[in-house]
Amino acid sequence: MRVRFAPSPTGALHIGGARAALYNWLLAHGPGEDGEGPPGTFVLRIEDTDRERSTEENVAQILDALTWLGLDWDEGPISQIGNTPRHQEALAQLLADGHAYHSNATAEDVRANRERRGADRGFRGEPESTGAVRLHVPDEGHTSFDDLVRGEVSFPNASMDDPVIARADGSVLYNFAVAVDDLDSQITHVIRGEDHISNTPKQLLVFEALGATPPRYAHLPLLHGPDGKKLSKRHGAASVQELRDAGYLPEAVNNYIALLGTGFGADEEFFTMDEMAERFRLDRVSKSPAVFDEQKLRHMNGQHLRTLSVDELTERLERFTGRTGLRGAVEISREKIQTLADFWPLAGFLFDGPTDDPKAFAKVIGSGGGRDTLAEAREALSRIEPFTADTVEAALREIVDRRGLKPGQVFQPVRVAIAGGTVSPGIFESVALLGRERTIALIDRALSKIINPPQG
Question: Can you tell me the distance from the alpha carbon of 446 to that of 443, in angstroms, rounded to the nearest whole number?
């Protein structure tokens, strides 16, 4: 089995493209279509014939995204524009064999002819010695293929115009280049989004004209958001880069998108890449659109994140934040975060000092006896030895029990004093990590705000 992922470098790699890349990778690394074959070959081709929109920056983005996901390729990246000599050779062959012809018919001519002859009749331009090159479409019959996801798909030839396969200047168009490249790379299976279905008959006709056996095709349903509409930025992250910037782990992203409409059991949701490759089958892929729900991805990402050792998670968070010395904070935060991006808003105060949340301060410390409780907590914390999470907890709970308060009435004033807001890692662990000196200084700072409120 030889599969390929062939993105057009006109922007970042979107999530639908990542799913197509992953499914191709899984097929190449799995047991084959029948479940018994040896591993296949994953070819990466960059379809960069659109020179105005295809940029080196976009190519780099795609390669970076695939590398981050761990979708390594066996061959490539192959530049489609680099195959121009071969495209010209194949084009000359079709012209010489009479399967293609030059025509000066314009798009307006095609529309006018269709109106005269009926919408269900194709258009055959008159042969010329110059002009664009069109491929002959048979007048009768159908161009059909057995889609490995959708089943039999058929297009009446009478409904198709002779497609343009090269411009008047000789530069070939997408569907012709794709077919020639797939032929030359000996691609056996093409797995791509269903938005390519209308391209498939044109590519099949090129294979037929070249006297070659086409690959088998599988068209994946499009991804929808939770509202049932086509996945877009309104649903959250829409590209691999955005997912990475949002703090998702590549293994969680792969795991989640691998499950979208692939028929895995409801209790089967946590896999390594090798396990996914072993279990993945095209005949399990649903014909219906799959729903990409970022909240479900967040949940899965949190699960993956907590399987990492503290050292591994620390390394990833230090790369993500650009900070060092995070291990202690990571150890007390890992149960409360679902993405790498959740870490700094939760624990950043341990390094940069408390945030400024006037509403939280006024509610928790500035009213309802919060100041007196905080002052009492300060006194208790200043005396304990040794200064550990356990002794901090014992000291604060002693105040709760002695005064008959709810735990939050004691813990929250301390939290707001050291963190600036009402969210932090475990309060006992946070205080212990800050140490006695810093904790007391931050509590004194909070108490001074009430004694000496800022002037404004």
Answer: 5
**Per-domain residue ranges for the chain?**
2-223, 233-343, 349-451
* Active site residue ranges: 233
Neighbours of 373 (CB within 10 A): 23
- What is the rounded distance in angstroms from the CA atom of residue 97 to the CA atom of residue 104? 20
pLDDT of residue 130 exceeding 90, the answer is no
Segment holding 290, helix H or strand E = strand 290-291
Assign domain 2-223 to its CATH architecture.
3-Layer(aba) Sandwich (3.40)
**Pairing of β 41-46 and β 2-5:** parallel
Do 196 and 219 form a contact (C-beta atoms < 8 A)?
A: yes
CATH number 1.10.1160.10 is the correct assignment for the domain at 233-343: yes
Residue 14 DSSP label: B
Residue 264 has pLDDT above 80, yes or no: no
The region that residue 211 occupies, defined by phi over 0 for left and psi between -120 and 50 for alpha, beta otherwise, is: left
- pLDDT-based confidence at residue 105 (cuts at 50, 70, 90): confident
pLDDT digits (tens, 9 = 90+) for 345-402: 999 999 999 999 999 999 999 887 899 999 999 999 999 999 999 999 999 999 999 9
CA angle 162, 166, 172 (to 5 degrees): 130
Q: Which CATH number fits domain 349-451: 3.40.50.1970, 1.10.10.350, 1.10.10.10, 1.25.40.10?
A: 1.10.10.350
